[in-house]
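Collaborator request, handled under Task 6.
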Amino acid sequence: MQNAQPAGLPNRQRGNDLRSLEKDSGFWERNGSFKRSVDVILSLLALIMLLPIMILISIAVWGSSKGPLIYKQDRVGRNGEIFPMYKFRTMYVDSDNVLQALLQSCPRSAREWSIYQKLRFDPRITRIGSFLRKTSLDELPQLFNVLLGHMSMVGQRPILEPQIEAYGTEHFAEYIRSRPGITGLWQVSGRNGLPFDKRAALGTQYSQNWSNRYDFVLLLKTVPALLKPDDAF
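Structure tokens returned to the collaborator:
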């Protein structure tokens, strides 16, 4: 399903946001072609180099529990278009029903979810899934999203449609200016340990200060961030 307008906003506000995007489109047009070329080259190289690891992960996921190897979830991309984001499956089947039941029965978990949109102790996650999340290996299939043009190697964290309202109108207007990324400022600044509003603010900071050099610095900072998995869950 494709949606040319940002979902979840009033029609008037959508128009304002898209006019804001159009006003600044020259910035991305002047610089975006090189960024896209780097994305294609890096994603291809990474897929070739990481193929053996991805095969091993596929075997581990297949043996952990029933369900598909790859989990697809609709996310909001550039210009508000919806795309399927790929990840290795880290949860048991029927996890959405498990989450709703938990949030309704446990006020503490409901409060944590409202702040972070994540749970540190999530009963939906398999044992191998917990390891994949802490190491971010579950996100390797997003290299295909980069290759297909849905995402970038570096950008804002891709959000769900229901999270648009929590993201905030001002931050969302910045969000839709570029492709979301596998890594970015959020990834190297605390990951899931940050409240959702802080994550949105970091996304806007990235969008307003973007440059190819900035992307390169964030890619370099991603490696040590992955070696400190305390805030990954």
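The cover message to the collaborator said: "The beta strands are 70-76, 82-88, 152-154, 181-183. The chain has ten helices and four strands. Please let us know whether this matches your experimental observations."
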